[in-house]
Write a structure and sequence with these properties.
It is a single chain. By secondary structure, the chain is an all-alpha fold. It is about 65% helix and about 0% strand. Pfam families: PLAC8 (PF04749).
Length: about 90
């Protein structure tokens, strides 16, 4: 039980950081609740929303990170702040 709680919380926080980065890059509002709330209470819903948002913006999920980065003219992975920003 402790292992499941620890990995679940860690995964939620990790995903929360990427969701915040996605919102920041594309100018999306943080609604109906905060990024961490979305991934903590319904992580699969959050991942599904992010997938559909990127797909609607023209990303090809089956191509992988490198092919999408080349298409966008980026050569390095995005920087994600490892600490809290608020």
């Amino acid at each position: 039980m402790l292992l499941a709680m620890t990995t679940g919380i860690g995964t939620s926080f990790y995903s929360c950081c990427y969701r915040a980065k996605l919102r920041e890059e594309h100018g999306l509002a943080e609604k109906p609740c905060g990024d961490c709330c979305v991934h903590f209470f319904c992580g699969l819903c959050g991942l599904s929303q992010e997938y559909h948002e990127l797909k609607n913006r023209g990303f090809d999920m089956s191509a992988g990170w490198e092919a999408n980065a080349e298409r966008m003219g980026k050569t390095a992975a995005p920087y994600v702040n490892s600490g809290m920003t608020r």
